[in-house]
Amino acid sequence: MVSSIPMNMGYNNNPYIIMPLNKTSEDGMTVKCSTPETKFPDEFMNNLNDIKAADADGNNIISLEELRNFEGKTEFAQTILEIMEKYAQDFRYKNYKV
Questions:
Q1: How far is 87 from 13, CA to CA, in rounded Å?
Q2: Is 9 helix (H, G, I), strand (E, B) or coil?
Q3: Are residues 85 and 78 in contact, defined by beta-carbon separation less than 8 angstroms?
């Protein structure tokens, strides 16, 4: 399984995805980036609401543990969970290989 969703590795082999932020806030302020933006695939952006609810602590970061504990898993959320578990497994294997 290959994914172009940008993932990072946290402590205790817990991958996470930093969710894209809105460019315009509710009060009309606009945020601009001076560095190249991370491009999320269209499939991810179209299904963003399916996994936003998994962000239990509201910090705009979805971790593997949050997705595992998420009760309302859609098919898309389950797919992201499987991608993250594979990422964790590959990361562990790559770093502990003898």
A1: 9
A2: strand
A3: no
